[in-house]
C-alpha cells in the first residue's frame, strides 16, 4: 500500500529542480560583469513534469555513443539570447533576483508538500 508514493517522488523532484535552477541563477549572477556572457536558465518544473509521461530516448554524450540521439535531457539548460549591455553581457541582476525568489518559493512549496504528506502518512498509521 505504501510502497510507491508518488507524492514523495514529486516533492523530491520539485526540490531537486529548484536546487539545480538556483545553481544556474547563481552562476548567472556571478558572471554579471563577464563580457559576452549570456544568461542561462532551466526549463520550468511544470513543463518538465507535464512531459514526463512521454517516452524519452537516451542522450548521446559524444559521437558514436549509443545511436547518436540528441534529445535534451529533462531540465536542460538553455541560453537566453538577449544582450542588454554594451559589452555583450545579457545578465540583468533584477531579473535574476526575481528568478531566485521564484525558486525559493518552489523549494518551500516542495518542503511543505513533503511535510504535509508525512503528516498524513503518520496519521494513517496511528502515530500523531
Automatic annotation (TrEMBL):
<keyword id="KW-0969">Cilium</keyword>
<feature type="domain" description="Flagellar basal body rod protein N-terminal">
    <location>
        <begin position="20"/>
        <end position="38"/>
    </location>
</feature>
<keyword id="KW-0282">Flagellum</keyword>
<protein>
    <submittedName>
        <fullName>Flagellar basal-body rod protein FlgB</fullName>
    </submittedName>
</protein>
<dbReference type="InterPro" id="IPR001444">
    <property type="entry name" value="Flag_bb_rod_N"/>
</dbReference>
<keyword id="KW-0966">Cell projection</keyword>
<dbReference type="Pfam" id="PF00460">
    <property type="entry name" value="Flg_bb_rod"/>
</dbReference>
<dbReference type="GO" id="GO:0009425">
    <property type="term" value="C:bacterial-type flagellum basal body"/>
</dbReference>
Amino acid at each position: 500500500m505504501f510502497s510507491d508514493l508518488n507524492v514523495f517522488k514529486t516533492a523530491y523532484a520539485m526540490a531537486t529542480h529548484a536546487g539545480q535552477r538556483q545553481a544556474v541563477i547563481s552562476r548567472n549572477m556571478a558572471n554579471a560583469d563577464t563580457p559576452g556572457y549570456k544568461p542561462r536558465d532551466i526549463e520550468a518544473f511544470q513543463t518538465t513534469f507535464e512531459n514526463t509521461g512521454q517516452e524519452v530516448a537516451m542522450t548521446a554524450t559524444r559521437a558514436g555513443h549509443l545511436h547518436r540521439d540528441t534529445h535534451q535531457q529533462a531540465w536542460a539548460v538553455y541560453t537566453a539570447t538577449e544582450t542588454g549591455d554594451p559589452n555583450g553581457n545579457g545578465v540583468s541582476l533584477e531579473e535574476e533576483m526575481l528568478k531566485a525568489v521564484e525558486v525559493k518559493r518552489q523549494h518551500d512549496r516542495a518542503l511543505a508538500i513533503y511535510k504535509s504528506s508525512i503528516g498524513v502518512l503518520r496519521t494513517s498509521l496511528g502515530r500523531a
